[in-house]
Design brief:
It contains 5 helices and 7 strands; from the N terminus they run E-E-E-H-E-H-E-H-E-H-E-H. By secondary structure, the chain is of the alpha/beta class. Strands 4-3-5-6-7 form a 5-stranded parallel beta sheet, sandwiched between helices. Strands 1-2 form a two-stranded antiparallel ribbon. The protein starts with a strand and ends with a helix.
Length: about 150
């Protein structure tokens, strides 16, 4: 079986990655980001790790995708045009079928009060933009591990 390798460049840093073969058993990540270029960049980073990705550029469509796709994790921007990402997060945490999904907040808001607000709303992880590939990968791995540990303890 051949493995496709290619270079990924972002902010003057270049990495070599091998593409993993996608299948239905791989985790699905919902990226909620109103900036299409940023959403595409996150999707590409996640695809490189081997995740399946679906994107939403609006909070309202994110709710529909949460219900229809049942993602394994959500990557969520805070500053969205219609409904704040933190409001989306609060709604996720209120919903009995969605409340345990890991949500990684990714935002330009990086003041201590912003981070506190994110965790109080229910964020599993909080990342400040710009986000590196390795930071995003680690945040997802940590989120999945925490969810597994929580599941094992119940």
């Amino acid at each position: 079986m051949a493995t496709l390798c290619y270079f990924f460049s972002y902010r003057s840093q270049v990495w070599l990655y091998s593409e993993k073969k996608m299948d239905d058993k791989q985790k699905l990540i919902l990226v909620v980001e109103d900036e299409s270029d940023t959403a595409d960049m996150f999707a590409e980073m996640l695809n490189l790790v081997g995740f399946r990705v679906v994107t939403s550029h609006a909070s309202t469509s994110a709710f529909e995708l949460l219900e229809s796709e049942k993602p394994d994790a959500v990557l969520l921007d805070v500053m969205m045009p219609e409904i704040s990402g933190l409001e989306v997060l609060r709604e996720i945490r209120k919903n009995s079928t969605l409340k345990d999904i890991p949500v990684i907040v990714v935002t330009a808001k990086s003041l201590p009060s912003d981070i506190k607000d994110g965790f109080e709303a229910g964020a599993t992880e909080y990342l400040s933009k710009p986000v590196s590939y390795l930071d995003l990968k680690k945040a997802l791995e940590d989120s999945f591990q925490a969810a597994q540990n929580k599941s094992d303890n119940e």
